[in-house]
Amino acid sequence: MLNLKLGVLLGCVLLLATVALSASVGEYEELCRLFKNGTKVRKPGTCDQYIQCYDGNGTVLTCPSNQSFNPSKGSCVDTLANSNKYCGNRCEGLDGEWVADPTECHKYFYCMNGVPLAGMCPVGQHFDERSQSCLYGVDSMCVDVNNICELVAENTKFRNEKDCAYYYECDKTGNHASKSCTVTSKKREYFDVESGNCVEANKVECTAHSKENVCTSSTTMTFKSDQATCRGYFVCKALYPVADLDPLWTQCPEGYFFDEDRQLCANPTTVVCTHNRCDGRGTMLVTSSSNNCHNYIRCVDNKEVTEETCHWDHFFDETVEACSSKIIYDKCCDGRD
Ligand SMILES: *[C@@H]1O[C@H](CO)[C@@H](O)[C@H](O)[C@H]1NC(C)=O
Ligand SMILES: *[C@@H]1O[C@H](CO)[C@@H](O)[C@H](O)[C@H]1NC(C)=O
Ligand SMILES: *[C@@H]1O[C@H](CO)[C@@H](O)[C@H](O)[C@H]1NC(C)=O
């Protein structure tokens, strides 16, 4: 049994030579993007180096000699004998066992009398220490690197890049659990890594909108708002009697907003939307969806900066980006009827 498994794994070792040659340059940007700005992360596979993450960018720093980085303290401390089983030789004292390589999800070591022999799983698979085998990536808990919680302080919460409504939390034993914000069809919250809280979906910059509770079972293809942006929508396939659980997310072109009632992309002045109305509008003044067309929003680089009200009961006219004495009822304003 053991020999068979070893044979299979050794087959993968040969693959190592041909596939993985160099670590990519953007490696730590990927890791840093998961954490709150300013987080210090022990460099995977080392004891005395750490990555200082600022604005999603990582700088590798080294502790003074004879010191190790302690993730819980966020600083370098005097090295204690066998102080951390994840940063030294992971095979120490082991024989005939597999351990995860702390630098990559798909790599592992086979321990032979304490000596680590490197190997890697087939493409698309991750090494799983608990079952001592390679699993398909989707079935594994590995995020970016193996044992990621060993690199940061306990109770750290970090992003799930596959779905903005989900996040991970490290426990005291160095493992992480997947957690979810509220995502019903009526209320959508996304994880905000800076505050460590779930907040209104439209307050979070998201590159993986949650597909949960979006589509309903239907006999025709339908478009559903992502409920977090004014331009983004999902394409729900007609899979009646079941709902499409993996709809494609896409966006209206810049200068257009998605209208779920009409099932199309339309001029923003005709679409009610209270998310970021500056999305795709660049730097300009746009009509607000509140205060009966008296309000406008100042957009700078596609972001809402301030919301202001026209003087003397004037109405905002988006076509000329100015307040006007003319009565204007854009269809995007409240009090529309
Ligand atoms: C991240 O932290 C650095 C240093 O504290 C700060 O200068 C920078 O503005 C922060 N970035 C964001 C996006 O808050
Ligand atoms: C990260 O820092 C490097 C060097 O300081 C810089 O060249 C690179 O553009 C930065 N990347 C990001 C995403 O800010
Ligand atoms: C580091 O440890 C070694 C071996 O224990 C010792 O010889 C050396 O003096 C130490 N260096 C410092 C700077 O403490």
From TrEMBL:
Give residue ranges for domain Chitin-binding type-2.
29-87, 88-144, 146-208, 212-275, 278-332
Q: What Pfam families is this protein classified in?
A: CBM_14
Q: Report the superkingdom from the record.
A: Eukaryota
What UniProt keywords apply to this chain's record, in alphabetical order? Chitin-binding, Disulfide bond, Glycoprotein, Repeat, Signal
Q: Mind telling me which Gene3D superfamilies this protein's record contains?
A: Chitin binding domain (2.170.140.10)
The reply on keyword Transferase is: no
**Cross-referenced SMART domains, in alphabetical order?**
ChtBD2 (SM00494)
Signal sequence extent: 1-22
Question: What are the annotated GO cellular component locations?
Answer: external encapsulating structure; extracellular region
Tell whether Ribonucleoprotein is among the UniProt keywords.
Answer: no
GO MF terms here are: chitin binding
SUPFAM superfamilies in alphabetical order = Invertebrate chitin-binding proteins
Specify the protein name.
MIP30263p
Task: Provide the gene name from the record.
Answer: CG17147-RA
